[in-house]
Every structure is written in structure tokens, then in C-alpha cells.
Write a structure and sequence with these properties.
The protein has 325 residues and is an alpha+beta fold. The protein folds into 3 domains: 2-98, no CATH class; 109-185, SH3 Domains (SH3 type barrels), CATH 2.30.30; 195-323, endopeptidase fold (from Nostoc punctiforme) (Alpha-Beta Complex), CATH 3.90.1720.10. It contains 8 helices and 24 strands. The strands form 9 sheets. The protein has a 6-stranded antiparallel sheet with strand order 18-23-19-20-21-22. It has a 3-stranded antiparallel sheet with strand order 4-5-6, with no helix packed on it. A 3-stranded antiparallel sheet has the order 11-8-14, with no helix packed on it. A hairpin with a 2-residue loop joins strand 12 (164-169) and strand 13. Helix 5 packs across helix 6. It is globular, with a radius of gyration of 20 Å. The two termini are 17 Å apart.
Length: 325
């Protein structure tokens, strides 16, 4: 099955959603409406009441393990987790899933959204007129197969020169602005960039409000932010901070370089890992802190995190990290 809404929230159990969460359960989903409708306390309970596990972007392939009335228990292969070796587990509304389109996973070229969000247009005319009425707002890292011989028989090179890319989606052929995506061969791993490039990508999301379980440019949690920035640069990390700290190369505080991940644990760094940030250089960190706050750059020295620092990890050129899927 494949996700057929802009962002699908993955719940702990079918009975986890509350009345306030209905906007996140529909198809089409109203992710912005859901986020603005919640109070601070309602956002906090996504975590404290263990309601949400993660999210999956439009076009993501998931494996359905079982169905229960209008719900599907799924695993998400592109989000590694020790919770399940097949991928990150949780429950999604069946209405937010559809059958994988014919040839969906066989297309040689992929388009991936590079802007924070962009519109997936229903027709080429809508794209040219910038008519959003029939479009869908999709997030950074949304990845869709390119239709190589697209509209009017044009080649990929011709369509990109004309300012658009035609993609195959759960809703059929759709159109993306060429300057909002990058196109690459699906069988070729993206080349990991430098640590400085990782930090620059992370800075695109400064001031984005934190969302527990968030995996999109509508809101990230701490590990979802690290996962997404690294995936853009060709490295697929585990989904959760407690798993991310188990891979890569250990780095001490005095050896940190831009782009390394920083991990923080309870009991002044001796307990379980509960937070992750990206080292931004000059003893600063960029991170998605907690509910009620937004992505920020802060100094480590004298911060609330300094006493909880339990080590850094480096993933660029590390033999212990999966290549991008």
C-alpha cells in the first residue's frame, strides 16, 4: 500500500486519536488545520499519552500487517527501527492508504521535493496558472516516480526545461514545479554531502514549531528532524534518537564537527537517550526542542542540555549507516 494523503500520522493504537484529531484522520488530510486547532496541552498529550508514533509522507510505500475495521497496522520500511526490523510500526486509517500504482516502484527516475513545501498540481494548466485549488500541498522529502515520457510525449529533459516535472502518484499523473524538486536515478545512492551542507539544510527549518512524532515540514520532532535532514543528504538513519545513537562513529565533545549529531540522556547523560540535535559548529546546536518551542540554534555551554550530553555521532563516510533507500 502507499500513503495517499500529504502527511499520514501513524498512531499507537486505533483508539489513540481524540475528537480534536479528526482533521488528521481524513482524506484529504488537513494537516495545517489540525496543528492550529490544538492547544498546547493537546499537543503535549500526543507525547505524554503515547498517542502518536511517527508520520509518513505522500507516496511512501508501507507494508500492511493486519486490518482492524477502518484501520491498518503498518510498518514503514524507509524508517528503520528496532521496534520492528521490517520498518517503523504503527496504525494508520485505511482511508489514507491506496494500492500501489502499476509500475510505481519500477520507474527509473525519482523527483524529491527540496523546498519546505510545494504544491502537487492536478494539471499542467493549473501549474502554469499557479492555481492551487485542485492541488495538494506536500512536504520536503516527498519522493515520487517521474514519468519519463510525459505530457504531450515530452522527455524528462524537455519537461524540466519547460519548468515542470510530471510524476506518478497514488492519484495518477500529477505535476511539480521543476525548481522545487531534484531529480535523480532511483537505483543510484545520493552522495552524502559535507557537514556544513547538512547544517545549511537544517537552517531552512528555523522557527518551525515542534511536533511530537513529526516527520514533515509541517512540524518535526527532534529525531524526525535529524532523520529528514540526513536523508536529504543521502543517509538513512534510524527513526528514533535512541536508535540513532547506536549507529555511526562515536565522537567526543572536543572532536565535534558541523553536521555531527549530539545526543542527550536523562540522569546527567548516564540514563536513556531522550533528545538529539545537529552540531552547527562553534559549540552551537540546531534542534527541534520540545512541544511549545520551535527549531532553533542555541549555544551548548550553560544550556539545559549541557549536563545531559552523552556523546556525538558522525555518519558521513561511516561504515555503520545504511545507504539511502
Amino acid at each position: 500500500m502507499v500513503v495517499c494523503v500529504s502527511v499520514a500520522t501513524v498512531w499507537t493504537e486505533p483508539d489513540s486519536p481524540r475528537f480534536i484529531d479528526q482533521l488528521a484522520l481524513n482524506n484529504p488530510v488537513d494537516i495545517r488545520g489540525w496543528l492550529t486547532s490544538m492547544t498546547l496541552d493537546e499537543r503535549l498529550k500526543l507525547c505524554t499519552d503515547n498517542l502518536v508514533q511517527t508520520q509518513a509522507l505522500y507516496g511512501t510505500v508501507v507494508h500492511v500487517l493486519e486490518e482492524q475495521e477502518q484501520w491498518a497496522k503498518v510498518v514503514i520500511p524507509i524508517q528503520p527501527s528496532r521496534k520492528d526490523e521490517r520498518g517503523y510500526p504503527g496504525w494508520m486509517p485505511l482511508r489514507q492508504l491506496s494500492s500501489v500504482p502499476v509500475d510505481y516502484e519500477e520507474q527509473p527516475w525519482m523527483a524529491e521535493v527540496t523546498s519546505a513545501t510545494t504544491v502537487l498540481f492536478a494539471t499542467l494548466q493549473d501549474l502554469k496558472r499557479n492555481n492551487h485549488n485542485n492541488g495538494m500541498e506536500v512536504s520536503f522529502l516527498t519522493r515520487l516516480p517521474v514519468i519519463n515520457q510525459g505530457h504531450a510525449g515530452r522527455s524528462l529533459t524537455e519537461t524540466m526545461a519547460a519548468g515542470y516535472v510530471e510524476v506518478l502518484t497514488p492519484h495518477g499523473p500529477r505535476f511539480l514545479k521543476a525548481d522545487h524538486v531534484r531529480v535523480f536515478h532511483g537505483q543510484t545512492s545520493l552522495i552524502p554531502s559535507s557537514g556544513d551542507a547538512i547544517v545549511e539544510t537544517a537552517k531552512k527549518f528555523l522557527d518551525l514549531p515542534y511536533l511530537w512524532g513529526g516527520m514533515s515540514a509541517f512540524g518535526y520532532d527532534c529525531s524526525g528532524f535529524a532523520y529528514s535532514v540526513y536523508r536529504y543528504h543521502g543517509i538513512t538513519l534510524p527513526r528514533d534518537a535512541s536508535d540513532q545513537v547506536q549507529v555511526g562513529t562515536p565522537v567526543g565533545r572536543n572532536e565535534l564537527e558541523a553536521g555531527d549529531l549530539l545526543f542527550f540522556a536523562y540522569e546527567q547523560g548516564r540514563g536513556s537517550v531522550h533528545h538529539v540535535g545537529i552540531y552547527a559548529g562553534d559549540d552551537h546546536m540546531i534542534h527541534s526542542p520540545k512541544t511549545g518551542k520551535s527549531i532553533e540554534i542555541i549555544p551548548l555551554k550553560n544550556s539545559v542540555y549541557e549536563q545531559e550530553f552523552c556523546g556525538g555521532r558522525r555518519y558521513i563516510s561511516s561504515p555503520h549507516v545504511s545507504p539511502i533507500l
